[in-house]
Amino acid sequence: MKNISPLLILMSISFLIGCSSTENQVNTSSEEIDNIETPSDDSVPGETINETMRDISPKEFVLDMGSGWNLGNTLDTEDVDVTAWGNPLTTKPMIDEIANMGFKTLRLPVTWQYHTGSAPDYILESDWLDTVENIANYALSNNMYVIINIHHDDEWIVPTYENAPYVKDRLIKIWTQIANKFKPYGDYVIFETLNEPRYEGSPEEWEGGTEEGRDVVNQYHQVSVDAIRATGGNNAIRKIMVSTYAAGTGENVLEDYLVPNNDENIIVSIHSYSPYLFSLAGTDPTWGTDEDKAQLTEEFNVIQAKFETEGRAVVMGEWGSTFSNNENDRLVHAEFYANLCAERGICPIWWDNGNASEFGIFNRNTLEWVYPEIADAIVDATR
User: Fold this and answer.
1) How large is the angle between the packed helices 164-182 and 211-230, nearest 10 degrees?
2) Catalytic residue among 97, 133, 196, 358
């Protein structure tokens, strides 16, 4: 998710994912990437915060994640400048306040392509890795979970058979480096292989893609998970979130979704700005009738029917509603939505892009809650 734009206003709420094949496999070894050493500099944390890996099932794990908040449009700006989309630099007092409100999980969207060297090694800038680590440690020092992902790298992560060899090779090398950086950290650090993997700009972009697209997205998740696991140590059993195609919930997406290696420590990652006209487009500012609630409940029933049967834990990595001079309707929606998640053991993570006229509920400059009632409703649902 990023800034509201005409492209996003064309979004549908149902997204999707697909099956995996052996076509166009890449045999690049993760051993080609050397471990990235952390510079001994005062700006870099002196020690790893929390190295513990607990014996805890994914469902118990997700329940303990409580409710979450996205540091949106910051490390995921499509620019070398993390302030390019209007948000300030992230500080520890900022994340302290998120924790003080009661949020137990910080999702940290990260775009890597502007901090990556050229082929064939695709070496990540050490300063960028340190920046991600520092912000992760702000959350970890508050006993929060942290989700680190690949976000807004859609320009090169194109899910077609033609592009697959190149993309897989690059994903293997990028994830090997990220995984090595965070290998000493305990299980409060979670990896999310891809954000909303899809063929950007295609006619089916938000409609579940094509059979080819869903197949290739499965392959991209597969090589990413394999690269992470190959680094060993804590990463051998770390919880990893794997999204559906475009992180959607459409029928063909759910049907074609595959868990890499049937790995028991994979958590399903989905997004749902539902209903679309109220939550994302902002063209229908009212919400809260019995019919509205029934329709939203049915979507969650579909999600539960799919993943409860398979015994999979689920995280709602992004959801929310845009501001349309409708604070009460947004509050009713947020409370109902978060409770639907909580009733089904799903961790709800609000998308906050820092803009109070869109999804922002927290002012990152003043460290004040613009919509504290919405924040309270989200947090209270999972207490």
Assistant:
1) 30
2) 196
Lowest-confidence pick of 15-24, 99-108, 266-275, 289-298: 15-24
Q: Cα 170 vs. chain centroid, distance in angstroms?
A: 20
Task: For residue 113, count CB atoms less than 10 angstroms from its CB and return exposed for 0-12, middle for 13-18, buried for 19 or more.
Answer: middle
pTM of the model: 0.89
To the query of whether residue 192 is one of the catalytic residues in this protein, the response is: no
Continuous segment of H or E residues that includes residue 7: helix 6-9
298 annotated active-site: no
Tell me the per-residue pLDDT of 221-241, one tens digit each, with 9 for 90 and over.
999 999 999 999 999 999 999
C-alpha angle with apex 20: 124 to 220, nearest 5 degrees? 10
Q: Residues 13, 274: contact at Cβ < 8 Å?
A: yes
Peptide bond into 260 cis (omega under 30): no
Which pLDDT belongs to residue 49?
Answer: 81
Residue 219 — φ and ψ, nearest 5°?
-65, -40
Q: Which one from 205, 318, 335, 358 is the annotated catalytic residue? A: 318
